[in-house]
Amino acid sequence: MLLDPKAQAILDAAKNSGKAPVYTLPIEEARKIMYNNFVNPNRVLEEIDSIEDSSIPCIWGDMPIRIYRPNKKENNECFLFFHGGGFSINCIETHEAICRKLAKETNRTVISVEYRLAPEHKYPAGVEDAISAAQWVYDNAKLLNINRDKIAIGGDSGGAHYAIVTCLYFKNRNGIKLEKQILVYPPTDYFLPGTPSLRENDQYSVVNRDFTIWAWMNLIDSTTNLNDQYLCPLRAKDCSGLPPALVITAEGDPLRDEGELYAKKMEKDGTKVKLSRYKGMMHGFFMQLQVFQQANDAVKEIAEFLAE
What we know:
The chain is an alpha/beta fold. The protein has a single domain (5-307), classed as 3-Layer(aba) Sandwich (Rossmann fold). The protein has ten helices and eight strands. It has helices at residues 5-16, 27-38, 96-106, 125-139, 141-144, 158-172, 196-200, 209-219, 256-268, 293-307; strands spanning 50-58, 61-69, 76-82, 109-113, 146-156, 181-184, 245-250, 273-278. The protein has an eight-stranded mixed sheet with strand order 1-2-4-3-5-6-7-8, sandwiched between helices. The longest helix is centred in the middle third of the chain and has 15 residues, at 125-139.
């Protein structure tokens, strides 16, 4: 396959920079580099009505959230968002631009969640945080001035994984009803045996197979059950009765196949799914609104899906 020229330029620049890949660095250094990549004076931030920092009380303390309000409408629709970063890096700040853009284009209140990161907090810490966040937002809809019947959930990469398993958890327990799922290039299974794209697309993405292995090794330990559906949702036995899903994948992404396989699994089990593959794109394109028109197209597609 051929990468989009802008994507190829990013890949070439990374290879020729002489800098060590983040997955080879101590975790705090990796986080600092990724933070500086996305939180810098050159980023463009959409103007929206209001932004508020708050927190969700949970068993380990106060989990930070950031609330992006595009309007002053009463009982607004909501998009609960979990940032990506291989379960280990990134934060609310790194995803500021995309969350503002999502709030503006969807005309929904976007709530971005600062869940606990691996390797300090291994599985199931992040899953527990995602479930707690969804339950709290639902229970406190009136306080948040949102419509609890219109709470969509989603994220990019590892954040999309947390959205997936949150939906599975509530479905399996007849819990709260979430409106829709927005899953941007989600990881859905362990790297062994691995999908064809995990091997074949290794050369087309900065987030390559080695990064994927690093992310999984941060998240789990030797005692973890890989058949746990809340860890590897592609191995779930029943994906019926889930919220309608939009699954966005990238052609050159090592995670492409597992995202698309999960979309097909949901659809086979009776869940309504729209699958959209972005040609020539690599993993991470969604975050780069200033570089890729395709990122802006994906936001528009999300807005249209949520408006249906």
